[in-house]
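Researcher: Here's a chain I'd like modeled. Treat it as a single chain, no partners, no ligands.
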Amino acid sequence: MKKYYNVHTIWLFLIVLTINTYLFGHFQSSGIQVVLFIVLIAIIKATLIMREFMELRGVSLMWRIVMY
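Model: Modeled as a single isolated chain. Structure tokens:
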């Protein structure tokens, strides 16, 4: 299976997500929707880091379950 992206695009996407969460805090956004959105961003970032930078994409299911 061919990858249509590289590590640099994942890194840039993580930076954009980090800036997004910073801006929510900087502009003092509040509410349950904002909190859920920030938690969703954290889950996405953790998943991308585990899959791409820790290279857990091709390992056994047991290791992926342990890490998630």
